[in-house]
Amino acid sequence: MFKKVVAGGTFNKIHKGHEDLIKTTFNIGEYVSIGLTSDKFANLFRAEKVLEYKKREKNLKEKISALNLHDNYEILKIDDMYGIATLKEDLNAIVVSEETLPRAQEINAIRFKKGLKRLIMVVVPFAFKNNRPLSASHL
Which structural domain range is residue 94 located in? Predict the structure, then answer.
């Protein structure tokens, strides 16, 4: 169990892969910080428009509640791919998917350059549907 754990994403259409990531984050963290991408950042690299931030935040809170996870968490709006992970000194671990592992490695490199402690990287395996990794863009 880690004291403070971080995870992040767009969480546009919450699927099994998101659920696995969320459950893992809450199961290993006493306190969880979730970075949720702003509307502007979320739409920068996507072909289809994402749901607006308030709707995604509401859906995420409802999913956390439906999964019966602890309520010792915060959801923070992020405007870049690193969010709070390169800023907060007191974080212990980051939970990522196999797809976003390179981002966690970048985060640790930035933290190291800033003199911050590297985060333990916890990787959640892909969830599959029809022999393809689940992704919101495939739903």
Answer: 2-138
